[in-house]
Write a structure and sequence with these properties.
The protein is mainly β. It is 10% helix and 38% strand. GO terms for molecular function: sarcosine oxidase activity.
């Protein structure tokens, strides 16, 4: 079992978390202007990086959504933090 660090509750079992996708994968804006290609890219195309990755996770127990930096090769977590921490226009640290 792997422990993931919830920035609100501390270390918890990985079974309490739900993967939300790549950080920075923003939903397309506009109703009529969004093409099928844009929706396909948003829903299905992923970076699938080998190594360091920035991801969105939800801790199902407390209901909080947060960002986690982890390595996809050895599954080590560098850090996790609330989406409101950091700087930039997307609410994520850069």
């Amino acid at each position: 079992m792997q422990l993931f660090p919830c920035p609100f509750c501390g270390p918890r079992s990985e079974t309490e978390f739900h993967f939300g996708g790549d950080a920075g994968n923003h939903r397309p804006e506009g109703f009529r202007d969004v093409t099928d290609g844009k929706w396909t890219a948003y829903l299905y195309e992923r970076n699938n990086l080998r190594g360091p990755a920035n991801e969105i996770w939800m801790h199902m127990t407390c209901g909080e959504v947060f960002r986690m930096e982890r390595d996809t090769v050895h599954h080590g977590v560098a850090r996790s933090f609330a989406l409101t921490e950091g700087s930039g226009d997307d609410g994520m640290a850069h």
